[in-house]
Structure formats: C-alpha cells, structure tokens
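hi support,

uploading two proteins for the ticket. first:
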Amino acid sequence: MGVGVPARRAGDGAAAGRRPLPAAGVQGQGRRPDRPAQRSAVAGVDPVGRLRPEGTRPVRLRAGAAPRDRRRSGRRRGLRGAAEQAGRSAALRLFKVGAFSAALLILTVSMLGTGGGYLFITGFLQMVEGFSPMEAGLWMVPAAVASIAAAQVAPVIAKRHPLSTVVGVALLIGMAGYLMLVFVDPVGGIPLLVAGFVIIFVGVGTFGSLGTNLVIGSVPPERGGSAAALSSISGDLGNALGVAVLGSLGTAVYRDAVVVPDGIPRAAADAAEGSMEDAVTAARDLPAGPADGLLTAAAEAYTRGLNTIGVACAVIAAISATIALTMLRRSRGAVPSGDRAPAARS
C-alpha cells in the first residue's frame, strides 16, 4: 500500500465514524479513486501507521531533536556565541594599554626590517659569494651566538635601567648594523657584511628577550594567553611584510641597476634582468668568459639592492627606537579599569 495504512477489519472505519478506504477500481473500467474518501480514512491513522481513537489529535513528528532539546541547544549556542564575542571584545580592549600597544608596534616594525634584511644577507652569501648552503650557514653562526648572548644579558641590564631605554638602545645598535650593510661591496665585502649581521642580531636578541615579557607583563594575568597570541601574530606579520615589501624593493633596485654585458645570448640576458637567481642559473649554460661577465654584472646589481635594503632597515630600526623611547617611557603599563581582575579591585 502506497500510504502505509495497515489492514483493518471491515467496519473499523464505520465504528470510528469514517468511511472505509475505497478501492482504486479495476483497471480498464475507467473508474477513478474517491479522493475525499481516501483522505477521510487516512486521517484516522497516525504517521506511524497506528489507528488512533476518535476525537484525539493526530501526532505530528518533527525532524530533528525534541522541542526541549532544541531549546537547550539554542541556549548553548547563545551562550557560546556570547562567550566568543566577549573574548574578542576583551582582546580588543588590550590595545588600550599603552605599553602593550607600543610593544606590539615595535615588534611588528622591527621584525619587518629583520625579515627583509635576512633575506638579502643570506642571498648575498650564496649567490654573490658563491657559498654553499652549509658554508653560508657557518658564516651566520657568529650572529646567532651574539643573539643568544644578548638575550642572556638583556634581563640583567633591564633590572638596572628603564625598560624603554634598554629596548631603544638595542634597536639603535641594530640600526648601526644595518648602516654597515650600505657600504658592502660585491668584492671583498663579506667581513663588513658579517660584522653588520652580528651587530644587527645583538639588537634583535635583546628585544627578543624583553619584548615577549613586555607584552605579557603589561596585561592582567587572565589576559596573558591573548597577549601571547597577539605577540606571536605581530612578529609573524612583521616578518612576512619584511620579506614581501623589502624583497620587492630590493628586486626593483636590482632590475633597474643590472647591465648585461655585450655578447650574452638574448635568453640568458633576459633571465639575468629578471633576478639574481635566474642569472646564476643562466650562467651555468654559458662558456667561462661570458658566464663570469654575466655573474659580475648581476652581483653588482644585487649588492646595490642589498645597500638599499640596509638604508631601509636602518630607517625602520630608527622608527622602532623612537617608539620605544617615547611610547614605552610615557606608558606605565596600567590596566584599563574594565579589564582588572576581581582581586585587584578588592
């Protein structure tokens, strides 16, 4: 049966005050089913196929949970949404703390310079100087050691001097290291490059040691997780922006400065005018003389891009130091009244 009506004894419909379900007719006799009678008969059956007594209301089944479960689920969703909204509002209120905002701004700006400078310094070691990745990594060990030493000494110095002064001086030291990159030459420039790199990482290690504590220490303890997350995001954002912005700047300077010597095949010349990496790849397929000329021209252009990056990073470090010496000095790390812990009010 199409409607799922169970078989009933004759007279059941009459006892219930309804007509029995009529037959659909014999095929070929042209009779049509009695639709009103069928609807009247089916109305006496629940959706689960059971007969219900006369005078009772039909059972209506709903898809999904029961009404009480639906109300509970709705309340849970409402409470969860309110909690998420409160968490976002609390995270935004952290920016009312002067020390917190200043620390995040310094972290973002300083990592912008570090990301762009690191990109071109490592590129200089491998493509201009011709070092393998292992050799380039060994040349970077002194900078790593300097960063670790600065990170160990910075907390001791911060106990004796204002934190804003320590952070500002560290960023100025990093600025001096970036300025040394301006005078690096493609020939014989590696000592100056490594020395500048070491000085840069003295400033980076100092601020890296103090910056996280500065960010987390400027907010209430119950907001420490949000502060740490924003600190991590700010550093990653600054690093990514440095690679993107300063990398584009250095590439633009390279393309403007490269002068391909005569006698170079057109395909190799076009590759060299695109980037230093393409120049190195194209030189592998050329004879020794043209390859040396192409690499020399590309190295000079790449070094000019490195010099430009040094100027840009020095400006960024100066801006970071100015923020540290002004905003951090003015701010006392006070917590906004709406964010204080209950214990602090009592």
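and the second one:
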Amino acid sequence: MPENRIVENCVDSASVDNAFCPLVQRRADGAITQISVSPINIGSQKAEGIDFGVQYHQPIGEVDGHLRVSGTYLIGNRQQVISGDPTTLDIARGEIDNPKWRVNATPGITWGQFSLDWTLRYISKSHVDVQLSDEGRSDNDVSSRLYNDLYLTMDVNRDAQFYLGINNLFDVDPPYSAETFQGTGRGALFDNIGRYIYVGVNSKF
C-alpha cells in the first residue's frame, strides 16, 4: 500500500487503534520520521458459486453414445482491500476473468476402435471492469463466446492409439477488447490463436 494511503488511513480512522498507525513513526512534535510498508492483513475476499456436472451414456446398437455437461455459475466475487472503506471495494463477478457463466458440453460416440467427442465451450458476456461505466472505456463490454472442439481417436491395438484434434473449429476470434486478445492473464479464457489442428499417437511400452 502506498505510504500516503497508510498515513491517510491512520488519521482518518475512527480511532488511532487501527492497523495503520503502528506503521507510522513520529517525533515528539508529530512529524513523521518513518513509514513501514510491510504487508498487513486488513482486507477480506468473498467468493461463492455453484459448480455442476452430469454424465449420460446410452448404447445405440453398436454405438455407445455419451454426453458430459459441466459448468460454473458465479454468484459473487468481491474483495475489500481495506475493511470498512467502501472506496477499496473491488467487484470481480461478471468481469472477463470471472464471467457469471462458464459451461462445457461434450456429446460423443464410441464405435469399435473409433471415438469422437465434440466439445462446446461457452463463456457468458462480461465486462473488463464492472465498476466502470461504458463511457469510461470503449471496450468495456465483452460479448459471449462459444468455441467448438473436435477430438477423434482410433485404437490400433491394445498398446497404440492415434488421435486427431481440432480446437476452435470455426476459427472464432476473441471478443473486441485489449484485454481479451492477450491470451494470458485476465484474457486467458479466450482463444487468441484461432483454429488449431494437432495429431499424435499414444503408445505403451
């Protein structure tokens, strides 16, 4: 925390019996001689949500069909940097790295030596900063995204399996925002590579 904020919180608190005043050393005349910026535990964070998941299998003749659905609904995520100071409240629910909804659904089939999974990844619309008005940032609104991934395997024998995968099948771009195009940090949920094809083999020795 900056030195000036430590001093302000010390003198603005209801009493000198607070977490900030011990960090400020003064001379007898009241002049400040030293300010400690060592870490202090003065804030709080509260996050809550609902995680869910279901699986379903259904044989259809020689084909084994299956469906997996999992997701998260974020009820709340907020951090109070300084307890009792509303100006330090940081609300994260609904921002790009904490969207309200994230859902994955994977229908698939297994037929003999072949297996195919189609995964749909949904990220709900969000904001770069939910506490900032749209006038304050032109790219604050972040639209939802739906990605499609394919994964195909073929069992050669008990010890070898070929696989082919395509991520972001329809080459969906990230939402328009300087944050989302990074592909890391706060924008890590969004694909900034585009359609990606990979092949390989799994083998036991």
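thanks. also noticed: Residues 48-203 form one domain.
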